[in-house]
DNA sequence: ATCTCTGTGATTTTT
DNA sequence: TCACAGAGAT
């Protein structure tokens, strides 16, 4: 994720001796190498040096794992259940391919979903083959690899090689502008919704032209498709791509340029895919294209752990693998090395209720250990109290808090636990939540750096043009915008032009000129200054650091710390450009946690992790099979929720406890809840019911209150009142009051070179009124206005009167 | 520009 | 209930 990813192509990747053999084998690798294996086919030099025999790393594997590692040719699906050594198989397989000399590191494509997984694989392979990780240039996330390929062929998809990746914030900002331009009421049709829709299209590999007619109506009364097209056009103008494009444009590239596709098909002798159950349609199509020529594709995944359907993952991809890749071999990894027999039994029993699955039966030799505990509680507070007590007891027995996790379905559940733990003085940490890169101050800082590097990055420029406040409010920005659009130039360039005139107030003009000047100055220092020093200088000189120093809010200090952390992070890269290249894609830095704390997170973020003790609160109908999931996706939704439960249980090594609350406060009102259907699906032999002794007596009376509050409160809810009020209002979306003639002038001005104006012409200006042109200087006019006096203006802001 | 008020909606999250 | 975003007021 750091420097090594910037390295393109395959550099030296193995010790010299190994490199030699790889070269040789790669040339005529097919039959000879296969026949030779498993005999010791290392070069004499290596054998003489006493290096471990080729197969030594295979020894610790169980038969299925070994089969998965050694079945190198043809399509292979490895169904790897939870805790069955999936990562080990992947990394050993890569090492094996390299060791046999069947491919060079640069000829292996290995894709993961997260940076974390990619990093882990790099690390493990590095320690297996001897540290030289640079040799795996094509090991990374789908997105990172997508960027790498796109950079090399940017022109083929109407981009410049210097394109940047748009983050979600900027994406929304851009969509909002489009909606405003189209006069769409953002209240009714929020930009986020459109973003989600576009994302879902991109997930499925659907271009604007191919949007199904019905789906276009999912936004703005049928404007969905047109807006998607407009958005794509705008992205190209700005030379940016969004996350979805990283794959979409790759697909387009491969489809439109067969020679480019062929180049990669030949390059990748072996392909490996991690977490295949999480791939979306676009990723699947991408892999299919690459594997057409050379079917050595190995997908590792677990259909029972597919929990990202709602963001485009297609479980179907893994279910259909054998049809998609004819002649595919399927290997099941069912030996679990993580959990006790009871935990595994409970998890297996639960997931067995799903119909759409390939079917695996996890087993373990470990038959010791406790059954899964089950306890009902009165409400969420009691649930937190019970779990808090359990944890304190574990702590007293000497268990590390780091080995304890509470996995919730939805983040609002965390609150009760946090309150309780603060009360008890029990240290905890929340995993997930807002990420470093998503913090406002980090994004602002990055915006400054981005504009310094590339002055035509309009989106970033807009973000910080008035941050910190420098008197460039809406009206000033709008004027710059208008000019930029009329001329078809970036905002910074429009700003340069406008400060030569008197369109803006003297104060705004001075401020804007200062900002532009600063950016020019900073840009001039890129080559002569260390990038981290430059970043610091920019943040200081722009007044950004001062802005937070002057703020008295308690978070201001953290923000300044984060900025320092950003600079420290930058230091891991050689140049500013190198840092910026990776900033959008990889900023998942979490400070290494050393303290002993209980882990609190959602079930989703627990995937891939494991703990000695796991608590699973909130197993209630409507929450653990989440109501929304049921409403929106019916049976498949229910099955995904069940997989979520399965993922939760299989995180536990030695103990797991499921709890549910009979009453839960949601949106302010108390609701009585019934235990999740999943609870009754657990095999009784693996479960111990803990009697709930925590409440007595007052339950019924409280319940009465619940009903009264609910019944009487309804007609006072804001929602109802809103509905009443809005009834007669037939809704008249505000029309933007902009004379059409202005538009006409704008179009004319943008097409004509130079101004079509001459001295003496009577003109009209929105702000200054009527006047007569005194001087024409290219696009700049000096006009004697009847009321405002002599002003310098840009020609596109006036019209003939 | 900075605040206060009002309306709104409320799973899950990576890149 | 409560947090947050956007509009409107000062």
From TrEMBL:
It comes from Methyloligella halotolerans. Keywords: ATP-binding, DNA-binding, Helicase, Hydrolase, Isomerase, Nucleotide-binding. InterPro entries: DExx_box_DNA_helicase_dom_sf, DNA_helicase_UvrD-like_C, DNA_helicase_UvrD/REP, P-loop_NTPase, UvrD-like_ATP-bd. Residues 59-340 form the UvrD-like helicase ATP-binding domain. Has both ATPase and helicase activities. Unwinds DNA duplexes with 3' to 5' polarity with respect to the bound strand and initiates unwinding most effectively when a single-stranded region is present. Involved in the post-incision events of nucleotide excision repair and methyl-directed mismatch repair. Belongs to the helicase family. UvrD subfamily. Its EC number is 5.6.2.4. PROSITE patterns: UVRD_HELICASE_ATP_BIND (PS51198), UVRD_HELICASE_CTER (PS51217). It catalyses: Couples ATP hydrolysis with the unwinding of duplex DNA by translocating in the 3'-5' direction; ATP + H2O = ADP + phosphate + H(+). The keyword DNA-binding applies. GO terms for cellular component: cytosol; DNA helicase complex. CDD domains: DEXQc_UvrD. Residues 341-608 form the UvrD-like helicase C-terminal domain. This is DNA 3'-5' helicase. ATP binds at residues 80-87. The keyword Isomerase applies. GO terms for biological process: recombinational repair. GO terms for molecular function: 3'-5' DNA helicase activity; ATP binding; ATP hydrolysis activity; DNA binding. Gene3D superfamilies: 1.10.10.160, P-loop containing nucleotide triphosphate hydrolases, PCRA, domain 4. The lineage of its organism: Bacteria, Pseudomonadati, Pseudomonadota, Alphaproteobacteria, Hyphomicrobiales.
């Amino acid at each position: 994720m750091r420097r090594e990813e910037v390295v393109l192509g395959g550099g030296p990747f193995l010790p010299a001796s190994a490199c030699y053999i790889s070269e040789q084998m790669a040339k005529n690798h097919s039959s000879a190498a296969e026949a030779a294996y498993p005999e010791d086919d290392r070069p004499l030099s290596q054998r003489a040096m006493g290096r471990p025999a080729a197969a030594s790393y295979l020894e610790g594997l169980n038969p299925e794992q070994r089969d998965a590692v050694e079945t190198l040719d043809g399509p292979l699906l490895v169904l790897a259940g939870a805790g069955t050594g999936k990562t080990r198989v992947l990394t050993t397989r890569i090492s094996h391919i390299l060791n046999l000399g069947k491919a060079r590191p640069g000829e292996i494509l290995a894709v993961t979903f997260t940076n974390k997984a990619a990093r882990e694989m790099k690390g493990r392979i590095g320690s297996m083959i001897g540290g030289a990780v640079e040799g795996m240039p094509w090991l990374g996330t789908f997105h990172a690899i997508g960027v790498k390929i796109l950079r090399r062929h940017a022109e083929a998809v109407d981009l410049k090689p210097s394109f940047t990746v748009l983050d979600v914030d900027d994406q929304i900002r851009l969509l909002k502008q489009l909606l405003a331009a189209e006069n769409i009421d953002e209240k009714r049709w929020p930009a986020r919704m459109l973003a989600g829709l576009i994302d879902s299209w991109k997930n499925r590999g659907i271009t604007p032209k191919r949007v199904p007619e019905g789906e276009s109506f999912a936004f703005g009364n049928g404007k969905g498709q047109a807006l998607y097209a407009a958005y794509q056009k705008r992205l190209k103008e700005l030379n940016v791509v969004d996350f979805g494009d990283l794959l979409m444009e790759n697909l387009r590239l491969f489809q439109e340029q067969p020679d480019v596709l062929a180049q990669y098909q030949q390059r990748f002798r072996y392909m490996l895919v991690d977490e295949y159950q999480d791939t979306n349609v676009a990723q699947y199509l991408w892999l299919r294209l690459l594997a057409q020529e050379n079917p050595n594709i190995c997908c590792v995944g677990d259909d029972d752990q597919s929990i990202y359907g709602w963001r485009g993952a297609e479980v179907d991809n893994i279910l259909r693998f054998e049809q998609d890749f004819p002649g595919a071999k399927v290997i099941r990894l069912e030996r679990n090395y993580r959990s006790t027999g009871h935990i595994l039994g409970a998890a297996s029993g639960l997931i067995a209720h799903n119909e759409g699955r390939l079917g695996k039966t996890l087993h373990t030799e470990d038959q010791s250990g406790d059954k899964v505990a089950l306890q009902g509680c009165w409400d969420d507070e009691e649930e937190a109290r019970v779990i808090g007590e359990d944890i304190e007891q574990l702590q007293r027995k000497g268990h590390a808090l780091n080995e304890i996790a509470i996995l919730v379905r939805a983040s609002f559940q965390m609150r009760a636990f946090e309150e309780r733990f603060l009360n008890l003085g029990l240290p905890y940490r929340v995993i997930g939540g807002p990420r470093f890169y998503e913090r406002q101050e980090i994004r602002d800082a990055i915006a400054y750096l981005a504009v310094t590097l590339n002055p035509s990055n309009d989106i970033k420029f807009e973000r910080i043009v008035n941050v910190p406040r420098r008197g460039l409010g809406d009206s000033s920005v709008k004027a710059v915008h208008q000019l930029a659009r009329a001329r078809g130039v970036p905002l910074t360039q429009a700003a340069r032009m406008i400060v030569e005139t008197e369109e803006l107030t003297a104060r705004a003009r001075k401020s804007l000129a200062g900002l532009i000047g600063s950016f020019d100055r900073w840009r001039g220092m890129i080559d002569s200054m260390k990038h981290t020093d430059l970043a610091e200088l920019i943040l200081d000189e722009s007044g950004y650091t001062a802005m937070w120093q002057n703020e008295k809010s308690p978070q201001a200090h953290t923000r300044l710390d984060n900025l320092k952390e950003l600079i420290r992070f930058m230091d891991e890269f050689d140049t500013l450009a190198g840092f910026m290249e990776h900033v959008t894609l990889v900023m998942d830095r979490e400070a290494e946690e050393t303290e002993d704390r209980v882990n609190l997170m959602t079930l989703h973020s627990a995937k891939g992790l494991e703990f000695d003790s796991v608590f699973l609160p909130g197993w209630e109908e409507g929450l653990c099979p989440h109501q929304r999931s049921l409403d929106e996706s019916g049976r498949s939704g229910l099955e995904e929720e069940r997989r979520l439960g399965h993922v939760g249980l299989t995180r536990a090594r030695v103990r797991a406890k499921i709890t549910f609350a009979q009453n839960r406060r949601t949106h302010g009102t108390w609701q009585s809840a019934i235990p999740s259907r999943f609870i009754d699906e657990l095999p009784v032999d693996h479960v111990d019911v803990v009697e709930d002794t925590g409440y007595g007596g007052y339950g019924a009376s409280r319940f009465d209150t619940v009903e009264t509050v609910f019944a009487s409160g309804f007609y006072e809810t804001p929602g109802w009142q809103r509905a009443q009020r809005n009834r007669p209002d037939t809704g008249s979306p505000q029309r933007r009051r902009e004379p059409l003639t202005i538009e006409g002038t704008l179009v004319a001005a943008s097409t004509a070179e130079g101004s079509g104006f001459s001295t003496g012409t009577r003109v009209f200006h929105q702000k200054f009124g009527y006047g007569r042109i005194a001087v024409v200087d290219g696009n700049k006019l000096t006009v004697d206005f009847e009321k405002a006096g002599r002003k310098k203006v840009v020609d596109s802001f006036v019209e003939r009167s």
